[in-house]
Amino acid sequence: MIDLFGRLAWGELKLFEFFHAPSIDTAVASGAAWMAVLGVLAVMAWLTVARRWGWLWSEWLTSVDHKKIGIMYMVIGFVMMARGVFEGIVMRAHQTTALDGGVLSNTHWAELFSTHGTVMIFFVAMPFITGFMNYLIPLQIGARDMAFPVLNQISLGLTTTGAALVMISLVVGAFETGGWTAYPPFTGADFDPGPGPDYWVWAIALSGFGSMFSGMNFAVTIYKMRAPGMSFMKMPVFTWTALCTSILLIFALPPLTVACLMQALDRLAGFHFFTNDLGGNMMNYANLFWMFGHPEVYILVLPAYGIFSELTSMFAAKRLYGYTSLVIATMSIAVISFCVWLHHFFTMGNSATINAAFGIATGIIAIPTGVKVYVWMATLWGGRIRMTTPMVYMTGFFILFVIGGLSGIILANPAINWQVHNTQFIVAHFHNVLLPGLIFGIFAGVHIWFPKAFGFRLDERAGKITALLWIVGFCLTFLPLYLVGLMGYPRRSAAFDNPDFVPIMIVCMIGACLLMAAFAGLFVTLWISIRNRDALAVPLGDPWDGRTLEWATSAPPPPWNFAMIPHVNERDAFAREKADGQPYVTPERYEDVHLPPNTAAGMVVMIATTAFGFAMTWWIWWLAVASFAGMVLWYVVHSFREHPEVTIPASTVARHHKAWVEAASLNPGVTRDHENDTRNRGRAATDMVVAS
Amino acid sequence: MSSARHLGAAYRCALLFALLFAPSLAVAEVQGFLTPFGAIARVQRTELIWATAITMIAILPVLVGTPLILWWYRRDNTRATYRPQWHFNTKLEILMWGVPTIIIVALSVWLTQAVFRIDPYRDIDAEMAEGMDFEITGPPVPVDVVGLDWKWLFIYPEENIASVGELVLPVGRPADMRLTTDTVMQSFMAPGLAGQIYTMAGMVTQLSMIADSPGTTVGQNTQYNGTGFPAQRAPVRALSTEDYADWVETARGAPALDAETYGVLAQSGDIAKARTDLGREGDGPLVFSLAAPRLFDRVVARYRSGEPVPPEAQPGSPVYDPESASLPEVPQ
Ligand code: HEM
Ligand SMILES: [Cu+2]
Ligand SMILES: [Cu+2]
Q: Where's the Cytochrome oxidase subunit I profile domain (chain A) (predicted)?
């Protein structure tokens, strides 16, 4: 028996903790576990009742369509974000009561900041940006799919594995308590022999492979599959940022994965990479982790910059100012981001020369970042700005992000950093760049491309209210933390003894409630929009007077994206076609389209690696061997099978395309004055022409 | 010069920024980063104000300009000129790249000077005192700091005393600190006097600080190290020479910090627990006279023997057992 379940015992089930020892603390722990379990059961029940299992399997889980994979990434992101936001609120509630104590036990508090950070970075932010890149890259470069569609699905499988392991830790056992950075030796076997750090190690190591594969896939796709005529300097800006992010993914993820595996060796095999004794040295871990960790912030924020670039020019109805500057800035950020990692530990006793060098390097990276902000301002200058929901997010981003930049500059100075490192100042700083920088960008992007993906717009009024809630909620929740940070309150601290903090914590709590409402607002917006989907429908595919190729398709686009691969002569290819009055044309001849067939590869990887990670966490060796061997075997067997392509006959392509072109031609087109009413069916009377 | 005027404006902004933090300035009993009473921390605060002020030059245009642009170029403003094809301007480009570059150059020069000036490894000596305009009134006080779960042990090798949970320093004399930990990594910070430095097992880091008037700040751990983390806060008190001498005298008469006592102290727990375990009445910080010399070096040596240290012999481990965790001897 013991061997069958490794070190797993019934007592590890957190569902019943509350019933054994009722308290607020255990209520939160058990409640969360029940929520996870019931959530999964509810989804399964719905799938059964609605007879949707087959649909889920054949339309989604086994699909290799980059658009569907992108949407699935977004779904994972939102599901995990529900957890992350909820944990954030619980932490804020705890700190509100934390004058000499707090409602939660210190252990649960530590688990909360650790899971919250891990979830938000690896299973919210990463899926969001990967989802966007998946959806947009092929459409923007005029391609039909990724370079490696099956690998793409496998990446999704590995990301899901990581998310699943973190979710399982909510129900079985406990997560680690060393934060999202999981610094040894605190997370080493000598100090925490339990399953927590193992959950972290395997969730991060396995999903790390997925992210690295994604990076390779995107980079090759962008290098090799651009439409004829699209030279690098004619690529849309989002694609540029995606390229830089992909390069970062390829080079930044391996140090993290290696650091995780070294931790695993320390913990399982008695190695001494990061232990206190036998020459182990945690400083190596800090270096490896941040060699990933700093590029990671640019991995996350560059695609968001790309979204902001696209949307400023779109909603200012104007060409992007300073394309070349923006590209140079993006590339330099990508390169320099590998030269600054040490600023995460100016306090480790480095020599003054080293500290100064890395402080300066960090300052240098602020130059291209500043340029970007100015470029966006110049893009707005001389435009005709429509204050749509994405622009509301953009405004919030502008104002708040520069404050985050200011605190970044402050942190880059080692002399000051010694005072604010590891305090709430840093908590304020990274939320300041991650929420307005990344999350606002993602939500703005969702508003823009949701109509492309699903064929109808999102409700503007609900969207704007939600955006405002995010902005105000953010300000109240996080800006005050700068102050408590300067007053010396350490981060990750379950309690404080300074009564002056109490009113500040109450303000933060109010802000967190607004953020909760803002998060709910996203779903209210979705709900309202689904109910009005006929009025909001934009089947013709160009609701915002878009400029790049993805708008030159129907909404949603057909599985093959483009009836014929476009030829590109200019940067904003579709804007040019519209300005020339030639946007919707049919070719003389259509050709068959070949697409890769569905495969279960991603699901096999997901199930096998989840079992493997769980087995390694709980020392269930037979399962670890079986799942790993099973996966390898499946691949070996599978590689002998023929892989027929799916052929879409030219006639089908032609029928779809002609129907769309005809509908577009019959539609008179809508000027930007009626962008948000029912007249907007996705045919734009372009502003540039109307104006001149 | 217009740049000087800019600086002036920026300085005013910084003052405004500082005023925002006024509530914290009002709290005087426990001093922090914003109300320093030592030269090092004062330099750090000055850096904060200047870095903020200078960066404002790059940021203010965005904060002010964005709302203006959004308002003036709104779609229904017929008076605004619409220039859909405008996409490049050489002068603007030079400005966009130039201004941030100049700011970063300025900040970098500044930063480098500060980093060398108050490098935690730099001894606080006459040269530094002259450069930074403060006074040294006596010889340095060596202090060895050991991070334990969840309390700080301060050893005064020259005075042959030790204190747990309180660091007492004489005003005007530099504290010459060596730091390590006898468990997981920690970070020692005394915001009113100096910034922080990590403490790592088997390794020694350094930190220097000096108080120029009597005062209290909090010596805290900022690196999460377990459930007792928030409690790991030790007052750092700077006393006048006489008061300091009195304190040292009291400590000399306190019970000895021998191997056995150290083993008990190293157990995970706060000071109250240590008091109970050691059978010492009362509450608050503990003082000891020093029985074994070179305690600090022996703590460091524990992890450098070239032999594995089993978890039972590692303080902070859930299975730590003082009986099996004697400190190694070190050559005298
Ligand atoms: C939506 C509302 C959010 C709330 C209320 C919230 C709240 C918090 C709180 C209270 C902490 C602990 C601070 C401490 O150490 O004392 C924290 C940590 C953290 N948060 Fe958030 N957060 C939110 C959103 C986000 C987002 C969107 C991200 C990233 C995309 C994020 C990333 C992190 C990270 C990385 C940590 C550090 C965890 C660690 O210490 O290891 N948070 N957050
Ligand atoms: Cu960084
Ligand atoms: Cu070290």
A: 51-569
Contact flag B97-A325 (C-beta cutoff 8 Å): yes
Task: Please write the tens of the pLDDT for every residue from A60-87.
Answer: 999 999 999 999 999 999 999 999 999 9
The strand pair at B161-164 and B286-290 is best described as antiparallel
* Distance of alpha carbon A498 from alpha carbon A532, whole angstroms: 51
Share of chain B above pLDDT 90, in %: 83
Closest C-alpha to B179, from B212, B219, B230, B239: B219
**Could A370 and B23 be called an inter-chain contact, meaning their C-beta atoms sit closer than 8 Å?**
no
Q: Nearest residue of A to residue B217 by CA position?
A: A488
Which pLDDT score is estimated for A576? Answer: 87
Give me the pLDDT at residue A689, please: 61
Rounded to the nearest angstrom, the distance between the alpha carbon of A349 and the centre of ligand 3 is 7
State pLDDT tens for residues A578-591.
888 888 888 889 99
Angle between helices A440-454 and A126-141 (to 10 degrees): 50
Report d(CA B72, CA A658) in Å as an integer. Answer: 42
DSSP secondary structure code for residue B179 in this structure: E
In a mutational test of the B interface, the residue from A372, A413, A547, A692 whose CB has the highest number of chain B CBs within 10 Å is A413
Q: Which residues of B touch A309 (CB under 8 A)?
A: none
- For the cut 70, the answer to whether the pLDDT of residue A688 exceeds it is no
Size of interface A-B (CB pairs under 8 A): 310
- The secondary structure element, H or E, covering residue A141 is helix A126-141
| Mean pLDDT of the region A637-644 | 82
Q: Is A569 a residue whose pLDDT tops 70?
A: yes
CATH architecture of B136-305+314-324: Sandwich (2.60)
Architecture of domain A52-537: Up-down Bundle (1.20)
**A134 CA to centre of ligand 2 in angstroms:** 26
* Structure token pair of residue A291: 């060699």
Q: Write out the E strands in B165-262.
A: 167-170, 175-181, 186-190, 194-199, 205-209, 215-221, 233-239, 256-257
Average pLDDT over residues B39-48: 96
Q: Can you give the residue ranges of every domain in chain B?
A: 39-117, 136-305+314-324
CB contact under 8 A, B84 and A352: no
Q: What's the rounded mean pLDDT across residues A592-598?
A: 93
Cβ contact B224–A179 (<8 Å): yes
Tell me whether 0.90 is exceeded by the ipTM.
yes
Cis preceding-peptide flag for A583 (omega within 30 of 0): no
Pairing mode of beta strands B175-181, B141-148: parallel
pTM of the model: 0.94
Q: If DSSP states are collapsed to H, E and C, what string results for A499-537? A: CCHHHHHHHHHHHHHHHHHHHHHHHHHHHHHHHCCCCCE
From A95, A490, A343, select the one nearest B222 (Cα to Cα): A490
Record the tokens describing residue A65, joined without a space: 């369509």
User: Is there an atom of ligand 1 within 6 Å of A681 CB?
Assistant: no
Nearest CA-CA partner of B286 in B294, B275, B270: B275
Q: Percent of chain A scored above 90 by pLDDT?
A: 88
Tokens of A469: 């809630």
User: How far apart, in whole angstroms, are the C-alpha atoms of residue A11 and residue A166?
Assistant: 19
CB A501 within 8 Å of CB A489: yes
Q: Which of A290, A400, A427 to mutate to test the pocket of ligand 1 (most atoms within 8 A of CB)?
A: A427
Going from N- to C-terminal start, the domains of chain A cover 1-51, 52-537
Q: What residue has token string 């970042």?
A: A369
Is the Cβ pair A352, B73 closer than 8 Å? no
What is the tens place of the pLDDT at every residue in A325-344?
999 999 999 999 999 999 99
Residue B221 bridge partners (DSSP): B188
- Give the distance from residue B246's alpha carbon to the nearest chain A alpha carbon, in angstroms: 29
Per-residue pLDDT band at B29 (split at 50, 70, 90): low
